[in-house]
């Protein structure tokens, strides 16, 4: 008869893998590049997906699927994943334990997404690299786009009933690489059809509170160092505000660049 192995006895519960899992739990939307020596390793679902997408050899650490890439070639692989709409969290070793014993401290030092990438290796020549967002405000949709590499920042709105007509035009005009949407739009049939027709765009859904108009209004006035947004013909209740403010918050969380030029 076989022996049932408890979690504490399994290879999944080694100190290294517990460290990995803790970090991965904080970055569920990203592929985690976990630094081990001269390689970035991926495990479990990340390993299965990346090995398939990039045609990498899939191995195992204990019972867990694993694949890796040399750290010096990471930008090549990151660029390929970005073009496939993936987000990457880069986790580095940031400390050594005394006497070289025990587990080294690791943490995510950078998050790279299709719409926040800055390095030339991740960009398509002279083309814009737009990040877009959309949310619902009453019976209107607010839509905003930003290109952190150039500072271009625009917003507009339309009636919710006009989404099937208006959204394709905006996506066609700016061709964003990444699109952040309020979960309120998830059940909208027109939105689903439009997104299905644009499979190259990286899509992420966020709880509606991320697009809160009051918080977004405050974020925008801080960015422009103004008391209000009258010079943009906007008020706190304007439909554009939620999406535009969330773009700035998203950049602050996921980009290594400050955005004073925006």
Give your account of this protein's structure.
- With 262 residues, the protein is of the alpha/beta class.
- 30% of the residues lie in helices and 26% in strands.
- It has a 6-stranded mixed beta sheet with strand order 3-4-2-1-5-6, with helices on both faces. Strands 9-8-7-10-11 form a 5-stranded mixed beta sheet, sandwiched between helices.
- The longest helix has 15 residues, at 240-254.
- The protein is elongated and about 60 Å long.
- The N and C termini lie far apart (66 Å).
Cross-sheet strand order for the largest sheet: 3-4-2-1-5-6
* Unreliable stretches covering 5 or more consecutive residues: 1-10
How large is the radius of gyration? Answer: 21 Å
Distance between the termini: 66 Å
What overall form do the CA principal axes indicate? elongated
Strand residue percentage: 25-35%
Fraction of residues in helix: 25-40%
State the secondary-structure class: alpha/beta
**Number of strand segments:** 11
The major beta sheet can be summarized as: 6 strands, mixed
**Mean residue pLDDT:** 90
Order of helices and strands: HEEHEEHEEEEEHEHEHH
Q: Count up the helices.
A: 7
């Amino acid at each position: 008869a076989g022996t049932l192995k408890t979690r504490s006895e399994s290879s999944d519960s080694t100190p290294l893998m517990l460290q990995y899992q803790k970090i991965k739990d904080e970055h569920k939307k990203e592929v985690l590049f976990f630094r081990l020596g001269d390689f970035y390793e991926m495990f479990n679902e990340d390993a299965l997906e990346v090995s398939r997408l990039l045609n990498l050899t899939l191995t195992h650490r204990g019972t867990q699927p694993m694949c890796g890439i040399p750290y010096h070639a990471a930008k090549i692989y990151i660029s390929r994943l970005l073009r496939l709409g993936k987000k990457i969290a880069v986790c580095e070793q940031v400390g050594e334990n005394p006497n070289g014993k025990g587990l080294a401290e690791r943490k995510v030092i950078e998050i790279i997404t299709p719409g926040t990438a800055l390095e030339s290796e991740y960009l398509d020549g002279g083309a814009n690299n737009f990040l877009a967002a959309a949310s619902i405000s009453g019976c209107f949709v607010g839509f905003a786009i930003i290109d952190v590499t150039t500072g271009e920042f625009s917003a507009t709105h339309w009636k919710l009933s006009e989404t099937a007509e208006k959204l394709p035009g905006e996506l066609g005009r700016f061709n964003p690489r990444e699109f952040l949407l309020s979960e309120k739009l998830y059940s909208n049939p027109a939105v689903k059809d439009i997104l299905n027709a644009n499979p190259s765009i990286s899509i992420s859904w966020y709880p509606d509170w991320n697009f809160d108009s009051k918080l977004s209004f405050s974020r925008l006035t801080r960015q422009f160092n103004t008391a209000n947004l009258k010079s943009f013909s906007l008020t706190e209740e304007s439909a554009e505000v939620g999406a535009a403010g969330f773009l700035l918050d998203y950049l602050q969380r996921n980009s290594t660049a400050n955005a004073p030029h925006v």
